[in-house]
Write a structure and sequence with these properties.
Elements lengths: L1 H28 L16 E6 L2 E5 L4 H9 L27 E8 L6 H9 L8 E7 L8 H14 L2 H15 L14 H12 L14 E6 L10 H4 L2 H22 L4 E7 L3 E3 L4 H6 L5 E9 L7 E3 L5 E2 L2 H9 L18 E2 L14 E2 L7 E5 H5 L14 H11 L4 E11 L5 H19 L1
Parallel strand pairs: 3-4, 3-6, 4-5, 8-14
Antiparallel strand pairs: 1-2, 1-5, 6-13, 7-14, 8-9, 8-13, 10-11, 12-14
């Protein structure tokens, strides 16, 4: 009996000792971490919504507190995503009814925003079915992109932006001041410049809904650590391409995840620096049974450089030489098209353009460029994104195209349907134009 009591006491002492150690360990470890699905407290960003009455900054800091409240809400919202598949549903009168999410990243873009907003208003897809989301990120100190987007967006939703921009353009003409960066216009193809002037001077003559407000405008502000300059020479240097594209991939993924809603059927990505683009571009890209569709992107050049040039070489068909090249590269190397360091010998959408070709001709693509992408929203919901890391020796939009193809989605391009990117004079171009101007002045004196 005494032996049994002694054994019981030993057992109780052991359990007491073990319990004390566990309690001390719990004290050292602290509280259990928050659920993985809770908002990331380190994801600092700002969100502004725009109406005709002005800009409102949303309180994104309350997201963590609201998270726990939402967990216990008894209301449930039901969304039938079969209505957002990008099937191009029609209304009773044959009109489009799908909602489009228009996404545009902006960085140090103040000088091209008038052009961008003109092209935005010029979209003939029903403005009441387009949600706009801008992402302003990594702007230089003193840059006014954000304030300009605020001002333009409020005027856009008020229906007064067209008049404001016309007044600003007239004031610029009256001042009769032409900056060095604008001298290149004197050396551009005259037919092209006439086409640009027609597009910007009388848009309402062929688009009655030009001034119509959009369904919504949201402006996100978040930095991603992009330090590569915005000059043409800076952005297109081969040594920075991999870094730049991975950061752009992060930015695109963040904006998609932040702005995509359940009722969006399509996502249209557009770069800010497009000069001319058909107003029907969304409908024209929609009408094909493809999950991802891109147009051809060219840019004008001064006549002494040939007048025009393929711009976006990131839309291409895969080749055996490129696949063999990838096998010889390090895992983290990013293949960059158009550079001698990476001889891929791929078929580029830009190089098979025929100015007289059928604009409805489609070719299947593997990689795509990011200047103008229309994609069905369902592909993002099913996991396609813009890889912010090296995937098959590619990143961002080119890796996006390859990933979409690998997941069974159809990726295509229109070789003869052309959108024109703005001409950005390089430093060498500006020096050459300055030499030509000096030569003209000397000739006038003699």
């Amino acid at each position: 009996m005494h032996r049994a009591a002694w054994v019981l006491c030993v057992c109780l002492l052991f359990l007491w000792f073990l319990g004390g150690r566990l309690n001390r360990q719990n004290g050292q470890l602290g509280q259990a971490p928050a659920p993985e699905s809770a908002p990331d407290a380190g994801d600092t960003h700002r969100l502004y919504t725009v109406t005709k009455d002005g800009v409102t900054e949303e309180d994104t800091g309350e997201a963590a507190e609201e998270y726990s409240d939402k967990m216990f809400k008894e209301t449930v919202e039901f969304f039938d995503l079969d209505n957002s598949l990008g099937a191009r549903r029609k209304g009773p009168d044959g009109e489009d009814t799908d909602v489009v999410l228009f996404l545009m990243p902006l960085r140090n873009a103040e000088h091209v925003l008038p052009m961008a907003f003109h092209n935005l208003m010029n979209l003939t897809y029903d403005h009441s079915l387009i949600d706009i989301a801008f992402l302003v990120s990594d702007c230089s100190p003193g840059d006014t992109t954000l304030q300009t987007v605020f001002d333009f967006s409020v005027a856009l939703q008020n229906g007064t932006l067209a008049d404001d921009m016309l007044s600003a353009e007239q004031a610029k003409k009256d001042s009769n001041v032409k900056g060095t960066n604008e001298l290149y216009q004197l050396y551009m193809d005259q037919d092209y410049m006439d086409n640009v002037h027609r597009a910007y001077n009388s848009p309402e003559s062929y688009h009655k809904g030009y001034r119509t407000p959009f369904r919504s405008v949201s402006i996100y502000v978040k930095d991603f650590g992009q330090v590569v300059g915005q000059g043409f020479s800076d952005r297109h240097a081969v040594k920075v391409q991999g870094i730049r594209r991975k950061l752009m991939g992060r930015a695109r993924n963040w904006l998609t995840a932040s702005a995509l809603q359940a009722d969006h059927s399509w996502v249209y990505w557009r770069d800010v620096d497009i000069e001319t683009c058909p107003g029907l571009v969304i409908q024209d890209l929609m009408k094909f049974d493809y999950d991802v569709m891109v147009p051809n992107i060219w840019r004008p050049l001064p006549t002494y450089l040939g007048g025009e040039q393929p711009y976006d070489l990131n839309s291409w068909i895969e080749s055996e030489p490129a696949l063999e090249l990838a096998k010889k590269l390090d895992e983290d190397d990013v293949i960059v098209e158009g550079y001698a360091e990476y001889p891929t010998y791929r078929v580029h959408l830009a190089y098979i353009r025929d100015s007289e070709g059928n604009p409805d001709e489609v070719v299947d693509l593997d990689g795509v460029g990011g200047v103008s992408i229309l994609a069905k929203a369902k592909i993002f919901r099913q996991g396609v994104n813009f890889p912010a890391f090296t995937l098959w020796n590619h990143a961002e939009t080119e890796a996006f195209g390859k990933l979409a193809r690998r997941m069974g989605f159809k990726v295509g391009g229109l070789p003869h349907y052309t959108i024109w990117h703005i001409y950005e004079p390089s430093e060498d171009d500006l020096k050459h134009i300055a030499q030509l101007e000096r030569k003209k002045r000397r000739e006038k004196k003699h």
